[in-house]
Amino acid sequence: MTPILQDRTGLFLHLSVDVQNPAHLLRHHDLENYLTPLVQRLGAAHFIFVSATKRIGGGSQLTVGVAAPLGDHTAFAGWDHFTVQLAGQPTAAAAAAWKTDLRAALIGQQAMVLPPGPVDVQIAWRGGKSAERNWVEWWKPTGDAMGPVLGEPVGGNPFNPSDDHIVSLGLHLQSAPAGTTDVAVGLWWRPHPQEA
Predict the structure, then answer these.
(1) Distance in angstroms (rounded) separating the CA atoms of residues 189 and 142
(2) Which of 14, 100, 110, 169 is most deeply packed, by most CB within 10 A?
């Protein structure tokens, strides 16, 4: 265990990934695949906000600090948004049914597929106290269900969405009251703003 993280909670982690090759911004190099082993190694219980970005040049960088509430939700003005309450938690045994329900709820909302090109995604979960230990296990099934927003391969696996064009990803955890067994999921997405 990293001594600086020992007995610390309520932290954030941000990873900036230099993919070097412009083709890697939109193909492969999924941000969740970088974050999952890193946060599992450091200990998921330390973190309530984890984020990553892809860029070209400048080198890769990891930052850890104390998370603070956003406060001003106008930062998400102009983002498409969706929330749903799902029964149970997406443990290994329940992940298939959980992501099927999430995908169906997105389809039911008639979510619009993002256009080709770089996109930003924010995902928030509200679960019971035990969520702090296992919320990393929720990342993949949630992302796998986002095909109605991210795009899905024609005639292929609907749970293999085009998540490699996410260039900015934020993952948030909120604790729910003790005894809560369901998970509330919030999704925000938009095309990545073009830099001037």
Answers:
(1) 14
(2) 169
